[in-house]
Fold:
Amino acid sequence: MNNENSFETFLYISKKKISILVWKNDTKYKLYENEFILENESINSELSQLEKFLSSNILQIEKYLKRFIKKIILIIDHEEPFKIKLSLKKKNYGNFLNVKSLGLLLKDARSQIKENYNDNVIAHMIIDKYLVDGNTFTYLPGNIKFDNLSLEINFVCYSKDLLNELKKKLGNYHIEIKQILSASYMREYFGNNENEKDKKMDIFSMCQKIIDGHNNNEILLVQKTRKNQGFFEKFFNFFS
Structure:
């Protein structure tokens, strides 16, 4: 276990409990898992108990892995996210879809959210609809030329103040937040997905699927390591 990329660490925070999980990236085998049940369901209780929870678990994990934990994936479940909808249009003058033109439009969308809602941090960015020359799609159409493109994009965000507080707690152990995931978004997505809603999945299984790009309309904000990506994978990994 001498390669930092061979394992992933998750920290789950809700009003009822705090959990930590470490798995091997290649097999998703659980190397370490622990949780603490909260008696007082409040943000102050969570933050105060988080310090104790980290203190009693981080050292154990690092001893087992024989490596320091440098980054962690944070799963937030103790408050509802702030959701923003945004529509953007682009003229394409009869050209084919390409990664660059679509990517620039997405960069513009993300920049607008950061500029106008700068007290929030984006956790998820999902394209809800594609309007191509007046035709509506729920997926990215390929190999077509078009004159006008409109995107309806949903952003799932959390308070920057909250995340700064969590960063401080983790910073005491020299750990950075690699990625933020919304538990409520994941439950809603898998609950509405006909192929998944009857399956019993814990929160970490949902995380695995989201990180692996299970939602074809979600723009991945962190890098995926898969090589030889096709056009659509490159597009949805534009920010990587």
Summary: DSSP finds six helices and nine strands in the chain.
